[in-house]
Amino acid sequence: MTSPIRSLEDANILAQAIVNTIPEPFLVLDQGFRVLSASRSFYDVFKVDAASTQGCLLFALGNGQWNIPRLRHLLETIIPDRVAMDNFEVDYDFPVIGHRIMLLNARKVLYDDSPDVTILLAFRDVTARRGVERDLATLLGHTEELLRQKQVLLQEMQHRVANSLQIIASILLLKARAVSSEETRFHLKDAHQRVMSVAAVQQYLNAVDGLDQIEVHNYLDKLCAGLGASMVGENNPITISVQADESMVLSSTAVSLGLMVTELVINAIKYAFPVDRSGAAILVTYEVDGADWKLTVSDNGIGKPQAGASPGEPGLGTSIIDALARQLGARVERTTDAAGMKISITRATFASHMPRAA
Fold this sequence. Notes:
Helix content: 40-55%
Strand content: 15-25%
Number of helices: 9
Number of strands: 12
CATH superfamily of the largest domain: Histidine kinase-like ATPase, C-terminal domain
Oligomer: single chain
């Protein structure tokens, strides 16, 4: 097969055609940095003509816009050191075309049969890209500032909520002590305990502020420890323990779990042990099976409802538990016998995990 390039003139024609097909500005320089050839895109981008470019020293082009000491130094090191220059950035207000940011890349070409050297110099306009990068950096800075402000406001809100809950709880307790009606006193104390249950959940979640997911065992363990410390008296010791599989839940789910556990543990402390006895215990368990889970609060107390309660009308606590369970797509099962009370909240997404009807 014969080569279609038959002469040096043909090779030059081919080389110039290749240069002109390059979409970005491109120069071919001799070892003295004079322009041997320029691509069509170079003329188009910089709005110059061949007469003012061919044979001109690079550093004299365009009113000396490329006469940059650092650029000159880098180009001059290509010849003796045989190295390339990559991504040299030029930020300049060019004649006619205005402000541009250009990245320059240079390569040296050596020839086997000649001591001459040719330098290839490519230009890439990154003005738009740098503008986008600046805009993104500005946007990121604004976003970070908004997030910081949001965090400050959230912390302030949490502080105010905590204070408000404490004030409400204190007022309810004072009112309960002041009223003469036993029924009113009972309802005020009940409301006080529910406010405290919300405060207990909020207090722990504030401690893990900023986390999207909560480790369940540690969460329930600290929550129950706080409930025991605030509600279990020295004269009526009740052991509250937690057994939970290693699992993470969303903080929104943790709120519902915490409220249910708090409600059930408080009820067990209030009603399961009407008389002091040794070995009184409340056990909180949390089991996980894939996406399914089961929360159980059990006690070894008297195992029957409070005397005088109406079995046909669920109390406020029962309604709260049922509502929270529905929010989590779970069902509630209550069992009671002489061995104590057991309340299970189960979330199961397939039939085999659902309890059978009695």
